[in-house]
Amino acid sequence: MSAPTILQVNSSARLEGSVSRELSQLLSQALAGEAGTVAVRDLAEQPVPQVDADWVGANFTDPAERSQAQRDSLKGSDALVAELKAADQIVIGMPIYNFSIPASLKAWIDQIARARETFRYSEAGPEGLLTGKTAWIVVASGGVPLDSGVDFATPYLRQVLNFVGITDIRVIDGSRWDFREESDREAIRAMARTADVQPAQAAE
C-alpha cells in the first residue's frame, strides 16, 4: 500500500487557540502515520477569492476554447482541485460561525465544485467524480450541538462532499466545546489521535 496523502483544510479565522485546528492536526498526523504526507491548505493565511463574473464565464467555457485570460482566471481553482484530487483523505476543520460554515470555507467550496472536474451532469443527474476518498469533518462550536436544528453547517458540508463523489464521510464532534468537561475533551482528542471514527457515525 502506498503512503497516504492527507489534505488538511483549515477554515478557522483563529490562528491560535482554535479547537478545529488542534483536532484537525491531531487527526491528520494519525491518518498520515510515519510514511504519509500532510498538505495543509490554510484558508485564513491563504484566503481563497470569491468567484466573480470572469471566473464564472471561464468555467462555463469549454476547456478547449478558453482564452489565456480565462485560463488565468481559473488557475487558482485548478490548483485547489488538483490538491483535492491528489489526496487520499481530506480533513476539513470547520468551526460553526453563526450557525453555518465560515465564509472562507464557502469560498473554497465554490472554487472546487467544478463541472467536468469534480462532478458532471448525466441523464441520471449529477455524478461526483472524486470517488474512493474519505473525508473527515472536524466540527467545533461554542454552543451549537452537532446536527441539531440550528446546525446548518454540518449537513451542508456533507451534501457538498457527496455531490463531488465523496461518500465516506466521518465526523469528529468538537461541538459545544466550551460546555464540555475536560475528560470529555480529552476523549475527543484521543479519538482524533487514533482516527477512531467509523463510517456509521457519519451523516444519516
In short:
The protein is an alpha/beta fold and 204 residues long. The protein contains seven helices and seven strands, in the order E-H-E-H-H-H-E-H-E-E-E-H-E-H.
Task: Summarize the structure in words.
- The chain has 204 residues and is of the alpha/beta class.
- The protein has a single domain (5-201), classed as Flavodoxin domain (Rossmann fold), CATH 3.40.50.360.
- 35% of the residues lie in helices and 20% in strands.
- The strands form two sheets. Strands 2-1-3-6-7 form a five-stranded parallel β-sheet, with helices on both faces. Strands 4-5 form a two-stranded antiparallel sheet.
- Helix 1 (19-32) packs parallel to helix 7.
- The chain is globular and about 60 Å long.
- It starts with a strand and ends in a 10-residue tail after the last helix.
- Mean pLDDT is 95; it is low at 200-204.
